Structures are given as C-alpha cells and as structure tokens.
Amino acid sequence: MTWAGNWASDPPLPPALVLDGARQPAAAGVDEVAPLELRAIHAAYGGIEVLHGIDLTVPAGAVVALLGANGAGKSTTVKVASGLLAPSGGSVLVGGHDVTGAASYDLARIGVCTIPEGRGVFPNLTVRENLWMATQVRGNLAEIEEAAYARFPKLGERRTQLAGTLSGGEQQMLALCRALVTDPAVLLLDELSMGLAPIVVQQLYEIVAQVAREGISILVVEQFAQAVLGIADRAAIMVNGEIARVGTPAEMQSELSSAYLGG
C-alpha cells in the first residue's frame, strides 16, 4: 500500500500519536498499537539493494537500539522510517496506519521526528534563533527557551552564540531541544554519539532515557553498543542489511562482537 493521505479505514491512533496537531486518545479497551513498525522492508540505492526484508517494531514509550557496524544498513533504516527514502518493498506503519511512501514532512506532521547523523541545527543562527525557528511548529519562544535551558543549562549560557561555534555535544543538545518542541510520538536518533567525548555521550543518553519516560518512543541508531544499551529497553543487531538478532540489552551482551560493533 502506498500513502494516499486517507486513514478513514485504518486502525485508531495510539495515545502518543499526533494527528492534525492534536493528541488522539485511544478508545477504552483497545490494545495499544506500536507507534512505529517496519514490515519486510527492502530498500536500494541505484538498483543495489541494501536492506533485505527488515522487520522492526518500536513499542510505545520504549527505547529501541539499532546496533551494527558502518555499512550494516542502520542509517538507511532510519531514512526509510522517516520518509527520506521510499522502500522498494514492505510497509512502514505509524500507529498502525500504513504510511508507506509518505514524505518526511507528512510523517513529521503526525509525530515522527528525526535527528539525523551529523546533527540538525542551523549553524549560522544563534541558539536562541534556532529555538525560535521551532516556534513555527508549536509553542512560543519564552516557553521553548525555558524548557530547553532547564534540560541543558549550557544552552542558556550560550543563547546568543552561533550554533555552528558550539561544541559537538552542545549542538546535539540543541538538536534534541528543537526536536522535542514538536512534541513527537516517535523520535529517531541517528548516531547521537558520533564525534563526542564519552562523558558527553553519557549525559545525552541520560536525557534520552528521561524523554522516553515522558512517553516518547525512541529508535536509536548506534555503532557503539555500550553507549546506548544502558538506557535501551530492546536492541536489534543489524548485519549486512538484515536484522540478525532482537532481544533485551542483557540478552544482547552475549551477542556483541567487537569485530562488527566496535563496542
């Protein structure tokens, strides 16, 4: 099925999903639907298939870690989930609705928010101006700044500084703040730890865990397994474009191999 913008006959949205800018309550007694599900996903670049039938579910309020070496297919999976790459086969479901083929801006409208690899800030704008840009989606600047600086006091100290001159960790903090302004149902994080010191990575993942406790479902793509397993509820290992193993972080510990995980 290809996205046609008509959900009249589809299942009801789960509690955390956003439709037309408003939370949709679930009907009493209805089983909770996964906010994000990939079913038998195939994807290719220039005719070369890189994903070979991916099945992956992100339950409500859970942190799912997608682990694997460079080239395993992790970032491609995020591109498919976020609408940046149309799959060549399979289905993408958001809250039980088939949105296969939907553009990234349509998925963002219903609560799927992505922080891409390499961070997602406007480098030539100040911290405050980056946050102001988020008001185009929801909220007012005073409220957004208050929430951002409460989570990350360092950003408050640098509110007039150009985002491009911030440290890598501070840029990721700003990207997280901008993403959370949209009140997402699903947050997709691609290589959050890239280029950052271990202590900064630990601080960022502590915030990610806090965000999940607030009810947001999170898919984290990560090459370095140990950076994220401490806060993950589930983990999946990717090898050569396929999901090789899915389980709890404790179960994954015995599966980790430095030969392909670097962690």
Describe the structure.
By secondary structure, the chain is α/β, with parallel strands linked by helices. It has 10 helices and 12 strands. The strands form 3 sheets. Strands 8-9-10-5-11-12 form a 6-stranded mixed β-sheet, sandwiched between helices. It has a 4-stranded antiparallel β-sheet with strand order 4-3-6-7, covered by helices on one side. The chain has a two-stranded antiparallel ribbon with strand order 1-2. Helix 7 (198-213) links the parallel strand 9 and strand 10. Helix 3 (127-134) packs across helix 4 (141-151) and helix 3 packs parallel to helix 6. The chain is globular.
Short account of what is shown:
This protein has 263 residues and is α/β, with parallel strands linked by helices.
Portion of residues in beta strands equals: 15-25%
Order of helices and strands: EEEEEHEEHEHHHHEHEHEEHH
Proportion in helices: 25-40%
| Alpha carbon gyration radius | 18 Å
Q: In this structure, how is the largest beta sheet organized? A: 6 strands, mixed
Shape by Cα distribution: globular
Parts with pLDDT < 50 across at least 5 consecutive residues: 6-30, 258-263
Give, in spatial order, the strands making up the sheet with the most strands. Answer: 8-9-10-5-11-12
Q: Which structural class should the secondary elements be placed in?
A: alpha/beta
Features:
alpha/beta, 6-stranded mixed β-sheet, 4-stranded antiparallel β-sheet, globular, 263 residues, 12 strands
Which helices and strands occur, and which strands form pairs?
Elements: E1 18-19, E2 22-23, E3 36-45, E4 48-58, E5 63-67, H1 74-82, E6 89-94, E7 97-98, H2 104-109, E8 112-115, H3 127-134, H4 141-151, H5 153-157, H6 168-181, E9 186-190, H7 198-213, E10 217-222, H8 225-229, E11 234-239, E12 242-247, H9 249-253, H10 258-261
Parallel strand pairs: 5-10, 5-11, 8-9, 9-10
Antiparallel strand pairs: 1-2, 3-4, 3-6, 6-7, 11-12
Helix pairs in contact: 3-4, 3-6, 4-6
